[in-house]
């Protein structure tokens, strides 16, 4: 997709950019794979705000995405490329030979009519899902499983991909988009290619209201609050807190390591992202 720049005939349009959407082939979702989606405005089970700066936004329908790719050995064909309001990537509707329909994340270069398949014997082509042990070294992959059968968890955002760097024993080594090198069990599934819609990161919203449509509420800096509301608050005139940056509850926020030291998955990380 390309980036559309608007003529600055209003203050809002001066900085606004958007996607051109020429890859999309329909504006209607497949009804059997959609359901209602309720928003809790960042509130937890007790009704209190547990995640700040969330609320409002446009009404959405959830599209059920097939992250497990468990239709093994059944050939399919891409029917349409569609917009998904719940994620940065586009999605592709696939019709399988057994009469089943599934939504998958649309890979870069995927088009209507492309064959799609999953399983150990699937050909090495964009959009096909195979066990990591069956994918050649140096290939870009996305939708990567961390636990066999759980479904894809890594490299799912627009433009994301990981590189298959090495194979040794029961594990393969992947270089993730963050730069982290990580070992993953060789039987876990991954999809070949790069996630499409890579221009998503270059879009400029242009106005505050466009953020509100996405369900994002305003962010207030701690240093402009009162001491009662934030550790950075208070002071005569403008001050920058007078202490190291912390959250409203006193947790250090810059450079402070929050990962558990004894986390079980740490042994699979070959090289950290920092």
Structure description:
- Strand 5 and strand 6 form a beta hairpin.
- The model has no long low-confidence stretch (mean pLDDT 93).
- A seven-stranded antiparallel sheet has the order 9-16-10-13-14-15-17, with no helix packed on it.
- The chain has one helix at 208-213; strands at 3-5, 17-19, 34-36, 61-63, 76-82, 91-96, 101-105, 115-116, 129-131, 140-142, 144-145, 152-154, 162-168, 171-175, 181-185, 189-192, 269-271.
- It is mainly beta.
- The radius of gyration is 22 Å and the shape is globular.
- It starts with a strand and ends with a strand.
- It has one helix and 17 strands.
- The chain has a domain at 21-201: Nucleic acid-binding proteins (OB fold (Dihydrolipoamide Acetyltransferase, E2P), Beta Barrel), CATH 2.40.50.
- The helical percent reads under 10%
| Number of alpha- plus pi-helical segments | 1
Any idea of the CATH topology of the domain at 21-201? OB fold (Dihydrolipoamide Acetyltransferase, E2P)
Q: Strand count, sense and closure of the main sheet?
A: 7 strands, antiparallel
Q: How many DSSP-defined strands? A: 17
Assess the beta-strand content as a share of residues. Answer: 15-25%
The CATH homologous superfamily of the domain at 21-201: Nucleic acid-binding proteins
Class computed from helices, strands and strand pairing: mainly beta
Low-confidence stretches: none
Distance between the termini: 31 Å
Which shape, going by the Cα principal axes? globular
Give, in spatial order, the strands making up the sheet with the most strands.
9-16-10-13-14-15-17
| CATH architecture type of the domain at 21-201 | Beta Barrel
Radius of gyration: 22 Å
CATH class of the domain at 21-201: Mainly Beta
Q: What order do the helices and strands follow?
A: EEEEEEEEEEEEEEEEHE
Provide the residue-averaged pLDDT.
93
């Amino acid at each position: 997709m390309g980036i559309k720049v608007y003529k600055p005939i209003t203050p809002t349009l001066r900085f606004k950019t958007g996607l051109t959407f020429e890859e999309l082939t329909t504006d209607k979702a497949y009804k059997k794979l959609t359901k209602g989606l309720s928003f809790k405005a960042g509130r937890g089970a007790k009704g209190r705000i547990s995640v700040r700066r969330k609320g409002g936004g446009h009404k959405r329908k959830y599209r059920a995405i097939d992250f497990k790719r468990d239709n093994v050995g059944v050939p399919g064909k891409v029917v349409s490329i569609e917009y998904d309001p719940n994620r940065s990537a586009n999605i592709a509707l696939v019709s399988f030979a057994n009469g089943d329909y599934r939504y998958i994340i649309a890979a870069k270069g995927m088009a209507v009519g492309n064959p799609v398949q999953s399983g150990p014997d699937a050909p090495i082509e964009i959009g096909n899902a195979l066990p990591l042990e069956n994918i050649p070294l140096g290939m870009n992959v996305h939708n990567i499983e961390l636990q066999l059968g759980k479904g894809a968890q890594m490299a799912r955002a627009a433009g994301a991909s990981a590189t298959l760097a090495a194979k040794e024993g029961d594990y393969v080594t992947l270089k993730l988009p963050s730069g982290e090198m990580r070992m993953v069990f060789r039987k876990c599934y991954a999809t070949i290619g790069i996630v499409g819609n890579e221009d998503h990161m270059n879009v400029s919203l242009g106005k505050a209201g466009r953020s509100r449509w996405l369900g994002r509420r305003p962010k207030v800096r701690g240093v402009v609050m009162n001491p009662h509301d934030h550790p950075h608050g208070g002071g005569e005139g403008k001050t920058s807190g007078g202490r190291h940056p912390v959250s409203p509850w006193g947790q250090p926020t810059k450079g402070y390591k929050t990962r558990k030291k004894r986390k079980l998955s740490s042994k699979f990380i070959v090289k950290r992202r920092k």
